[in-house]
Amino acid sequence: MKSSDDFLRLDKARLDTLRIGIYDRSPASAWLSKHGLVERGVPYKIMNADPRQYPGEIIERDLASGAIDVAIVWGPIAGYFAKRVKSPRLNVVLLKSEPGVQFDYQMAMGVRYGEREWKQQVEALIKSNQAEIQAILEEFGVPLVSDP
Questions:
Q1: In a domain, 95, yes or no
Q2: Contacts of 74 (CB under 8 A, 6+ apart)
Q3: Residue range 54-78, pLDDT digits in tens
Q4: Nearest to residue 41, comparing CAs of 14, 10, 71, 12?
Q5: What's the domain range around 123?
């Protein structure tokens, strides 16, 4: 399976049996709703104060053990934990934004207003370390999307 379209083309009887783990109030909720799969959703709290809980457990614990069949999570979490689980049954599919559902977001850094020199220093560090930054993102399995 290489895309969300492949997933949605699964036999309806198969789709109707899947347990799809999602973080509550995330783009995944909107995606399930748009495609008539809300009843298949297994919601997880998006934030929890318990230090023993972390975003990747939906993959490491529940997906790997079979408690859920599919997990829709933020790309950096999916990439990192999919590499750690190392299961031949685990297939990572990049979900692309579509009308009404946004999955990709630009990342940014900011400095306080008026600190022009600090902003220039941060920008110069990013530019001069671009190759190393890229390598780290790839090492940790962060999916990268080209800017249209």
A1: no
A2: 23, 26, 55
A3: 788 888 889 988 999 999 998 888 8
A4: 71
A5: 106-148
